[in-house]
C-alpha cells in the first residue's frame, strides 16, 4: 500500500514500545511490533522442538508463522494468538527476548519475515517499531525516528517495571543482559541495529514519555 510509515528503531528499553503504541493511538494509525514476530518464531520453535541453530527449520517456521494480532476496539491493547493459543504475555519474558535476538541474527529468517512486515502497511498509515524498520524494511518512510537511552537508564526502567509488577529483579543482572543484547543486535552482519542515515535521533535518557511523544508528533506534523 502507498500509505505513510513512521519508523521507530532503537535498543530494548529505549521506550519504543510505549511511544509506538501512544503514537498509533494519537494518530489512529496501525502498529507493527516487529520484535513480537521474532519472539513468536522463538516460541514456535520451542513448541515444535526446533533448536535455535537449526536455520532451515527456523526459516520454515518464520515463513508459515500462524499468528493473529487482534486489536481491541479502543486500540489500546493488542492480543497475540499463535497457532490458536493466546501468547500476549508469554512472549514478553527475558528468555523469549534472548531467543528472539539469537534468531534475529539469521539472515534467511529475516528475509522470510520481510513481506509479512510490509503487509502491515494500510490506511491511514503505519507506526513500525523495531531495529531495522528505517534501514531495511521501510527505507522509503518519510519519517524515521531512532530512540536511544543510556544502558543504565534502560536497565533502571526495566528494573522498575518488574518491581512494580511485584517480580523480584537484580539491577546488575538486567544491565548485563541489556549489554549482551545490545552487542548482539548492533554487531550482527545482517540488518544491525543502527539509525538510518535520514533518521532523527532522540536520546530519551532525560526525557519523559510525554516529551518524547510530543517531539515525534511535532516531526510528523512537519513532514505531513
Ligand atoms: O523489541 P523486542 O525486544 O521485542 O525485540 C526482540 C529481539 O528481536 C531484539 O533484541 C532483536 O534482536 C530482534 N529484532 C530485530 N529486528 C526487529 C525487531 C526485533 O532484530 N525489527
From TrEMBL:
Catalytic activity field: CMP + ATP = CDP + ADP; dCMP + ATP = dCDP + ADP
Organism: Amphritea opalescens
Keyword annotations of the record: ATP-binding, Cytoplasm, Kinase, Nucleotide-binding, Transferase
Residue ranges constituting the Cytidylate kinase domain according to the UniProt record: 6-221
The protein's name: Cytidylate kinase
Enzyme class, spelled out: transferase
Subcellular location: Cytoplasm
Enzyme Commission designation: 2.7.4.25
GO biological process annotation, one example: pyrimidine nucleotide metabolic process
Any GO MF annotation of the entry: ATP binding
Pfam family, one: Cytidylate_kin
Principal location: cytoplasm
One Gene Ontology term, aspect cellular component: cytosol
Residues annotated for ATP binding in this entry: 10-18
Family statement: Belongs to the cytidylate kinase family. Type 1 subfamily.
Amino acid at each position: 500500500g502507498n500509505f505513510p510509515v513512521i519508523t521507530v528503531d532503537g535498543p530494548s528499553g529505549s521506550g519504543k514500545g510505549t511511544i509506538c503504541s501512544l503514537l498509533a493511538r494519537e494518530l489512529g494509525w496501525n502498529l507493527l511490533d516487529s520484535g513480537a514476530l521474532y519472539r513468536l518464531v522463538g516460541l514456535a520453535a520451542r513448541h515444535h522442538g526446533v533448536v535455535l541453530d537449526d536455520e532451515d527449520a527456523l526459516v520454515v517456521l518464520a515463513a508459515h508463522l500462524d499468528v493473529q494480532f487482534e486489536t481491541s476496539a479502543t486500540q489500546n491493547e493488542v492480543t497475540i494468538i499463535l497457532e490458536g493459543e493466546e501468547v500476549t504475555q508469554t512472549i514478553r519474558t527475558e528468555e523469549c527476548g534472548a531467543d528472539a535476538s539469537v534468531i534475529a541474527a539469521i539472515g534467511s529468517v529475516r528475509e522470510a519475515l520481510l513481506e509479512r512486515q510490509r503487509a502491515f502497511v494500510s490506511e491511514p498509515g503505519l507506526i513500525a517499531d523495531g531495529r531495522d524498520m528505517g534501514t531495511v524494511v521501510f527505507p522509503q518512510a518519510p519519517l524515521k525516528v531512532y530512540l536511544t537511552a543510556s544502558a543504565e537508564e534502560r536497565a533502571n526502567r526495566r528494573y522498575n517495571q518488574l518491581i512494580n509488577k511485584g517480580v523480584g529483579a537484580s539491577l546488575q543482572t538486567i544491565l548485563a543482559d541489556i549489554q549482551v543484547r545490545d552487542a548482539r543486535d548492533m554487531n550482527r552482519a545482517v540488518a544491525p541495529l543502527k539509525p538510518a542515515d535520514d533518521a532523527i535521533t532522540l536520546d530519551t535518557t532525560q526525557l519523559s514519555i510525554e516529551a518524547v511523544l510530543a517531539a515525534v508528533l511535532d516531526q510528523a506534523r512537519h513532514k505531513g
